[in-house]
Amino acid sequence: MSNKYPVVVYGASGYTGRLVAEHLRDLGVPFVAAGRNRARIEESMKLVPGIESARYEIVEIDHSVESLTQLLEGRKVICNTVGPFMRYGREVAQACVNTGVHYLDTTGEQHVLTMLRDDFGAAFAKAGLALIPSCSYMYGVSEIGARYCLETPGVDSLDMTEVAEAVPTVASAQTILDAVRFPAYYLKDNELVRYPGIDNCDITTPSGRVLKASNWGGTSNPIWFAADGRVRNCKMHVAMWNQELWKKELGLERAYKVQLQWLPEPVLYQVLDSMAKGITAATPPRESRYVHRSIDVCVGTGSNVMVRSTMVATGGYFTTGLMQAYAASRLARETPRVTGFRSPSEVFGHRELMGALESYGYASIKVERLA
Ligand SMILES: NC(=O)c1ccc[n+]([C@@H]2O[C@H](COP(=O)([O-])OP(=O)(O)OC[C@H]3O[C@@H](n4cnc5c(N)ncnc54)[C@H](OP(=O)(O)O)[C@@H]3O)[C@@H](O)[C@H]2O)c1
């Protein structure tokens, strides 16, 4: 295959794949729209604004290491949007190793991060390749805010919150349910500590509203910052503007512990997927910038310092599309400054990623020194 199209969008028929294609088109990056069903990819590409001036081709493949390896031959980078990633991520990562291609995905799940790190991190590093999960709203955006706080010398603890408007897509709903099966961790005194279960707490929005939040699978940030010698503590909680969701999450955890955990995996996936259909049965409409807004706050503290970053962003799927496209456009042309298992900000720079979000009108940030 030729390298006329250096970027592969895998899962191009999906809600997120389509948004990645939209932003690649805007950035002028040629790409392959790949997935398991050509007709669905064609339908999806028709919905991409400005697609008439995009340089792309469609490739239909089955989800196997062999087919993915063939697809990736001669490419530079893959934007993997086929989730849940614990089910489908390994084949893609292996094909990247086989062909010397950088890997980006949109997972926010700790168990996927650690699987990628443990099973593929060394091979990517050895090959000079970047393995970058969470290049997405959850939790690439909050990570940017945390890294602004870490610019203040002496900050060693990150207390992070997020308030988001969820429009879960089909695979997002499956991903949320899948995640209930896996343990979640936060960073305390340089150790990753396991939460006993879903951890609920109240958080206050900048406008003073009190919302019920949960640890939401722990988030990617404790995993990133456990490997950062500056950071002793990192914890994050997520609240949804739709306040019913945390109750549903607790109910699901209870159902899993009481009834579902005994099921063999293929049966369990069927049950979880039918429950996910109860949340989202079909692809939701395009996000609206005037509805789907989020707030990410990080308070960084040390013995004698305190700093707060506040990020306001719009459309978690829009920001994900842009972050993927921006990251892919850079990896298509430059040698990453670090390789192996890395966070988006480690590879691309938190200020540069923020610049990309700001230049698109998707987010803004305020950083205040409190003490
Ligand atoms: N962390 C974040 O902020 C963030 C943001 C956006 C998305 N995500 C994650 O990204 C993933 C995708 O989300 P989405 O919104 O694009 O969902 P989606 O609209 O349901 O799309 C899922 C995509 O995966 C493909 N797919 C599913 N099962 C497959 C299989 N067995 N083999 C090959 N392809 C398969 C689908 O292909 P078909 O059309 O052929 O079914 C489709 O292209 C989810 O895990 C979601 O949680 C995370």
The sequence of SSEs as H and E is EHEHEHEHEHEHEHEEEEHEHHEEHEHHE
Largest sheet: 7 strands, parallel
Q: Which class best fits the helix and strand makeup? A: alpha/beta
The distinct ligands, each listed once, are: NADP nicotinamide-adenine-dinucleotide phosphate
Helix content: 40-55%
**Rg estimate, integer Å:** 20 Å
- Find the CATH topology of the largest domain: Dihydrodipicolinate Reductase, domain 2
Count of distinct strands? 16
How many individual domains?
A: 2
- Average pLDDT, rounded to a whole number, is 95
| General form | globular
Biggest sheet strand line-up: 3-2-1-4-5-6-15
Please report the number of helical segments: 13
Q: What's the CATH class of the largest domain, please? A: Alpha Beta
Strand content: 15-25%
CATH superfamily of the largest domain: Dihydrodipicolinate Reductase, domain 2
CATH architecture of the largest domain: 2-Layer Sandwich
- What is the first-to-last residue Cα distance? 57 Å
Low-confidence stretches: none
